[in-house]
Amino acid sequence: MKDPGEICGPIAHIYRSHLAYMAKELEAYRIGSGQFDFLMVLYHKDGISQESLAKILKVSKATSTRALQSLENEGYVYRQRDENDHRAYKVYLTEKGKEIRDVVLEKLISFVDTLLSDFTPEEKEIFRQLVQKAAFKLFEPGFKHPGCDRTDDLN
């Protein structure tokens, strides 16, 4: 491919649009941009370590801490010291965090429906498969973002 911007540009635009949309839609719930991603992981892995959350979402420990503190202050999650490692925390959804699940999912579905509204059912399936295939490559052990010196933020 001669111009990687033909792929990276639209992906970045979709990502930024996704964050802006979700921030606007969840503003009334005091859930900020990017914080819903933490909730989405917890909906699948409640009780995961704070460090694992950061790794899964490919964010720094500091970013993870700030996002979780905000969610904790709003009553969506709580952190508890890990019994096996007293330096680490596990993160759990509160009842309020569990109750907001359907709202968050509804907003995500609405965004995806808008994104794919001009696609045929076949195109939607092909797009889903190709996006998953591309993303899967980035989960491979040893993947390191070019220009990033800190592998602990990405792996």
From TrEMBL:
Residues 1-136 form the HTH marR-type domain. This is Transcriptional regulator, MarR family. One of its GO terms (molecular function) is DNA binding. Keywords: DNA-binding, Transcription, Transcription regulation. PROSITE patterns: HTH_MARR_2 (PS50995). InterPro entries: HTH_MarR-typ, WH-like_DNA-bd_sf, WH_DNA-bd_sf. It holds the Pfam family MarR.
